[in-house]
Amino acid sequence: MNSGQAGPVREPSGSVGNPSGVACDSSATDDAGAASGPMTCRAREVLQRVGDKWSVLVIDLLGQGTMRFSELHRAIDGITARMLTVTLRGLERDGIVTRTIHPVIPPRVEYALTPMGRTLLATIGQLVAWADSHLPEIEAARAAYDARHRCE
Predict the structure, then answer these.
(1) Tens digits of pLDDT across the chain (152 residues)
(2) pTM for this predicted structure
(3) Which helix (H) or strand (E) is 91 found in, with range?
(4) Cα–Cα distances in angstroms (integers) from residue 29 to residues 6, 39, 44, 89, 95, in the given order
(5) CA-based angle 29:35:37, to the nearest 5?
(6) Backbone angles phi, psi at 110, to 5 degrees
(7) What's the DSSP call for residue 106?
(8) Which of 34, 44, 53, 117 is placed for a possible disulfide with 113 were both Cys, Cβ 3.0 to 4.6 Å?
């Protein structure tokens, strides 16, 4: 842009921390130096991680105990091995999941929630329970919507 106006700053595509590609303005702080505004960029990034559909399912499953990659993969219908790997790495990076490699042949890798990750279980459990209890209503709403919009 040569018009003298700066456009949005973009991070390289594929950025895990900010999938929208638009850089966050983290310069807004209050007098005490704490981030201000409706939601800080860093909080939004964390919510994107823990609110992602695969992360919710992984955290919910790991709430039952330590699991191996293959157990998680079998338990989550529709997730690819690559997406499970990406999800687990992100959760590990954020301190929600631990990855333990046992020195045996072949190596055994296990995943577990950290103490901080366990604090998410009540919230995620409520979300999963809500989804399970409202499935018939959601399916009916989808069918009604699809019927209304079929001719458009």
Answers:
(1) 444 444 333 333 333 444 444 455 544 444 444 545 566 888 888 888 888 889 999 999 999 999 999 999 999 999 999 999 999 999 999 999 999 999 999 989 999 999 999 999 999 989 889 999 999 999 999 999 999 998 76
(2) 0.68
(3) helix 81-93
(4) 22, 12, 16, 30, 25
(5) 90
(6) -125, 150
(7) S
(8) 117
- With respect to residue 24, please indicate whether it lies within any of the assigned structural domains: no
What residues form DSSP beta bridges with 109?
101
Domain that holds residue 91: 41-147
**What angle do the packed helices 81-93 and 41-51 form, to 10 degrees?**
140
Residues 40/18, Cβ–Cβ less than 8 Å: no
Q: What is the CATH number of the domain that holds 124?
A: 1.10.10.10
Phi and psi angles of residue 148, each rounded to the nearest 5 degrees, phi first: -70, -30
Residue 5 forms part of a structural domain: no
**What's the CA gap between 76 and 29, in Å, rounded?**
40
